[in-house]
TrEMBL record, chains A, B:
Protein known as: Aldehyde dehydrogenase (NADP(+))
UniProt keywords, alphabetically: Oxidoreductase
Native species: Snuella lapsa
SUPFAM superfamilies per record: ALDH-like (SSF53720)
Alphabetized Gene3D superfamilies for the sequence: Aldehyde Dehydrogenase, Chain A, domain 1, Aldehyde Dehydrogenase, Chain A, domain 2
Residue ranges the record marks as coiled coil: none
All copies of domain Aldehyde dehydrogenase, residue ranges: 19-467
C-alpha cells in the first residue's frame, strides 16, 4: 500500500526523478520502496491547491472541521498493523511506543475536534454601541479569530506520529481552518504516506475541499525551501534541530511578506538537584533519572541533558550511581544513522572539552545504530567558562555540573540559553529558600517541574511547550495543548456590522 | 524645563556631542533647544539598567504597577500648559487635538492600570492532578503569562502623545512588567522629554526600580540600531513607515537571539462604496469622507487613501463632489518638513502613473509645511496593472478606483497588500449580497467598518489595530486595546509545584 508518491491534494503524484529510501535502523538496511521527491511544479501545485481550498475551508463550520479531525483519527486507527509495522520498521522504536504514540495522536485529533466544535476558542469579544457616549458615540465593535492561510508543517523525526504528518502542528492548523502542506520527514516517508492516506480519506469522506491537505516528500533542503518561500504559504510549523529551524526562520523573515515560523528546536532541559535532596534520596533520584535519560533512547526534546548540583557529601555518590544505573539499562536503537552519528559526534565534542570527565558509558560492541548511554561531569567553573560544554547531545546523555555554591549555580542558570523545561528536585524544608531559583528558571524556560522529570508532555490547556530562543523561535506560543491553535490565527474586528454579515460566533 | 538631555533611568544625561533641533512646522523654523543624541555607552547603560530593573519590576504586584501607571497619568496632566505648548509647537497640530490626544493617553494609562490591578489578564489556567488516571497519573499543571524583558519602543511622529513616549506600546509593556526604553521621535524631542520627566517622577514617587524607564534621543538610525541589536533587549514596538519598521524587523530577525518586533506600519485603508449607496446618498458620503481624508491633515494610519467603486450613474458626480468638498476644507500644517516632502513626492509618484487623473487639488501658494489636499481617480484595470498606484501617500490624499464590475472590484481587493482596515458603504437591501466582499476583506485587513469611516480607533477589548503585512509585522497581535499587552508576555507552566512557590495568580 505504500507507493512512494506525494499527495498533491487528493492525488498521488510522482513526477520527479530524485528518489530516496528510508532505513530500518535496527537492521541497518534500506527499505525497498523508492520515495519520489516532489518537483518544483508539484510543490507549487500543492500550495496553490491549498490556497484555493482555504477560500472554502476557512468558512466551513467548526462542527464539520471537528468531524474531519475525528475521521482522521478513525482512519489512522483503521490502518492498524500496517501503520505500526511501518512505524517500527522506519524508526527502530518498539511496538509499545508506536501504539502509545498513535494513542496520543488520536487523542490530539479528538481534543482539537472538541475544541473547535464550539466557537468559544476564538476569544470572541462583543462591545456593544453606546450611542449617547460623550464626547463621541461608541460604535458596536466585535472581535474574533480567523485562520492565517495555508500552513507548512515540517515533521519531526523523533515523533513519527504525534509531531509528524497528523501531529500537533497539523491538527492545530487544520482545526483553526488552515489547509496544511506537510513536508514529510525523509526518514519515515512510509509512515508519513500511510498517515497522509488516512487524512486524504477522511477529507474525502467528510467533504473537505481538495487541497486541504498535501504530503510532500524530499530529502535535503530543496523542497522545504521552496515551500517556505512560496508567497501563498502564510505560516510554518517545525520540530527539529536548531540549525534546521533557524534556517527556515531566516528564509521566512527574508520573504517580501515575512511569515510567522513556530520552530520548536533544541533544549538540554536543566535539572537542579539540591544537596539536601541528594543527602536524603540520591539512589531514588538516580533510579528516576537513569530512566528519564534513556527513555526513547534519549530522543525527546525534553530529555534531561544537564543536571546541576551544588557539591555536597553525596554528590559524587549520586553521579556514580546515576552513571551505573544509566549504563545498566539495555542499549537501544536510535531513529536513523544520522541521529546516531550526531549523538556520537556531539557527545565527543562535549566530552573532549576541558574539565569534562566521563563517569560511565556503555562499553563494547553495539549494533550499528544503537546508542551507548553516557554520563559525564564537570565543575561549575569549567562549565561557565566554555559554552561548548552546554551544547545539546540528542540521545541518552547527561552532563552533571558540580557547582561550588548556590551563587555559582544561579550564575550557571542565568547563563543558559532558552530551554523548554527546567526541573527542581528539592526537599520540603527548603521550599521557602527556593524563590531565587524559581525566578532564575522562569526567565530561561517555558515549563518548570517540581520533584519530577521533564520527559512526558501532558496535552492539556495549562501545558506550555516552547520557551525562549533557541528552545523555540517565538516563546509567546506553545506547540502542545489547546493554545497551539493560536499560532495559526489572527484577530479581526467588525465595526457597526449588520448582524447577518457577522461571523456566526459574533452574531446577536 | 526642557533640557535636551536623555533620561538614562532616572538620571538626565548628555555625554554625546551630536545634537539636533526640533522644528516648528507652522513657522518653519528650528526650536531653540539642542537635543543630545545618546552615545553608545549611554544606550548600553539604559538597557543594562532596564535589565537590572527587570529582575525586581517583573515581580512587583499588579496593583503597584497600576499605581505607577496612574501616577504617570497624573504627572502628565500636571505638566499642563507646558506640555500642550511643546506638543503644538513641535507638531503643528492644533491645541484641541493636543488636549484630545492627552485625554486618550491618560485613558490608556488608566485602562491598563485597571487591567493589571487584577491578575486575570494573565490567562491563568489550573489543571489539577488526577493521581488515579490510567494508564498514567496526571500531574498538577498550571499556566500564567510572564513578561519577556526590556522592551524598546520607537515613538510615532503622528501621535506625539498617544503612540509615543507614554503611548500604547510603552504603557502596555510597563503594564506587563517589562521595563521600557523609548527611542524618542527626533521631531518631537521636547514633548518626549517632558513626558519622560513625568514617567520618571511617577516611577520615583511609586517606588519603581531605577531603569524601569529610559528616554533615548537621536536622529537617524544609529541609536535605534544599537537598541534593537542589544542582547538584553527582548522585544520591540514600532509605529511608523514600512521602510523604518521593516529595517528594525530585519535587524531583530538577524540577531543571534531573534526577538519579536511588533511594527505597525503602512496602510491605505480601502473603502468600498456600492453604486446603490452612491445613487442614494453620494453627497452625504462625500461630506463624511472629505472630513475623514483631511482629519489631522490626513496623518492617521487609518486614513482612507483608497476608495473603490463600481462605475455607475453617480460615480463621477461623487468623485467631483468629494474632490470639491475635500479641497474646500482649509489647508492644514503637516507634522514636519520630511512628512510634507514625502507627501508631495509620493503624491506626485501616484498621480504621474498611467491612467491617474487629478480631480481636485488645493491650488495656490501655501505656507511651506501645509498640505495641498488631493483627490485623484483611476480605472480598475489601470490600478490592477500597476502596483505603484497603490502606494501609500501619507497625508490628505485619496485615490478613487472606478471598477467596471463587481468581479474587477473583488480582484482589486484580493490584489491589495495587507491593511489595517477596510470599510464597506452599502445599502440595507444589498446586505445579503455582500458575503463575498466581506470574505475578501477579511483576508486583507485587521478591522472591517460598516457604513462608517476608518479614522477613529476605539480603545476597547474588541479593537484590532494591526493586519496582514505590511500593515503590521505580526497580524496575530494588536497595537491598541487590552490585548496589546499580549505582545510582551509569554506563557510559563508550573508542574507539581508547591503552593508557596507558585506565582500569586496560580496559588490555591
Amino acid at each position: 500500500m505504500i507507493t512512494g508518491k506525494n499527495y498533491i491534494g487528493n492525488k498521488l503524484s510522482a513526477n520527479g526523478s530524485v528518489t530516496h529510501h528510508t532505513i530500518n535502523p535496527k537492521l541497518n538496511i534500506e527499505t525497498s520502496t523508492p520515495f519520489f521527491e516532489a518537483t518544483e511544479a508539484e510543490v507549487d501545485e500543492a500550495v496553490t491547491l491549498g490556497w484555493e481550498a482555504f477560500k472554502t475551508y476557512r468558512k466551513i463550520p467548526g462542527f464539520k472541521r471537528a468531524a474531519f479531525l475525528n475521521a482522521i483519527a478513525d482512519e489512522i486507527l483503521a490502518l492498524d498493523k500496517e501503520l505500526i509495522e511501518a512505524y517500527t520498521t522506519e524508526s527502530g522504536l518498539p511496538e509499545g511506543r508506536a501504539i502509545g504514540e498513535r494513542g496520543r495522536t488520536v487523542f490530539q485529533l479528538r481534543s482539537f475536534a472538541d475544541l473547535v466544535s464550539k466557537e468559544d476558542w476564538r476569544e470572541n469579544v462583543i462591545d456593544e454601541a453606546i450611542p449617547d457616549r460623550q464626547p463621541l458615540p461608541k460604535e458596536d465593535l466585535r472581535k474574533t479569530l480567523i485562520p492565517l492561510g495555508p500552513v507548512v508543517v515540517f515533521a519531526a523525526s523523533n515523533f513519527p506520529l504525534a509531531f509528524s504528518t497528523a501531529g500537533g502542528d497539523t491538527v492545530s492548523a487544520l482545526a483553526a481552518g488552515c489547509p496544511v502542506i506537510v513536508k514529510a520527514h525523509a526518514m519515515h516517508s512510509g509512515t508519513a504516506e500511510l498517515v497522509a492516506s488516512a487524512i486524504i480519506k477522511a477529507a474525502e469522506k467528510t467533504g473537505m475541499p481538495n487541497g486541504v491537505f498535501s504530503n510532500i516528500m524530499g530529502r535535503g533542503r530543496t523542497v522545504g525551501t521552496a515551500l517556505v518561500k512560496h508567497p501563498k504559504v502564510k505560516a510554518v510549523g517545525f520540530t527539529g534541530s536548531i540549525s534546521g529551524g533557524r534556517a527556515l526562520f531566516d528564509l521566512a523573515a527574508q520573504r517580501e511578506e515575512p511569515i510567522p515560523v513556530f520552530a520548536e528546536m533544541g533544549s538540554i532541559n536543566p535539572v537542579i538537584i539540591t544537596s539536601k535532596a541528594l543527602d536524603k534520596r540520591y539512589a531514588d533520584i538516580a533510579d528516576t533519572y537513569a530512566s528519564s535519560i534513556t527513555l526513547g533512547t534519549g530522543q525527546f526534546c525534553t530529555n534531561p541533558g544537564l543536571i546541576l548540583t551544588v557539591e555536597g557529601d553525596n554528590t559524587q555518590a549520586f553521579v556514580q550511581d546515576l552513571a551505573e544505573k544509566t549504563i545498566a539499562i539495555e542499549a537501544q536503537c536510535m531513529l536513523h544513522p544520522n541521529i546516531k552519528q550526531g549523538f556520537v559526534e556531539n557527545g565527543q565534542s562535549v566530552t573532549s572539552q576541558k574539565g569534562v570527565e566521563i563517569v560511565g558509558v556503555v562499553e563494547g560492541d553495539l549494533e550499528p545504530n544503537y546508542a551507548a548511554s553516557l554520563i559525564a561531569t564537570i565543575s561549575g567553573a569549567d562549565f561557565l567558562a566554555n559554552p561548548k560544554t552546554g551544547q545539546e547531545v540528542f540521545g541518552p546523555f547527561s552532563l552533571v555540573v558540580k557547582c561550588k555554591n548556590e551563587e555559582e549555580l544561579l550564575k550557571v542558570i542565568n547563563n543558559l540559553e532558552g530551554q523548554l523545561t527546567g526541573t527542581i528536585i528539592a526537599e520540603e524544608e527548603e521550599y521557602a529558600n527556593l524563590h531565587d531559583l524559581v525566578d532564575a528558571l522562569e526567565n530561561r524556560v517555558g515549563r518548570i517541574i517540581f520533584n519530577g522529570v521533564p520527559t512526558g508532555v501532558e496535552v492539556c490547556p495549562s501545558m506550555q511547550h516552547g520557551g525562549p530562543y533557541p528552545a523555540s523561535t517565538d516563546s509567546r506560543f506553545t506547540a502542545v495543548g489547546a493554545n497551539a491553535i493560536k499560532r495559526w490565527v489572527r484577530p479581526v474586528s467588525y465595526q457597526s456590522f449588520p448582524n447577518e454579515l457577522l461571523p456566526d460566533a459574533l452574531k446577536n
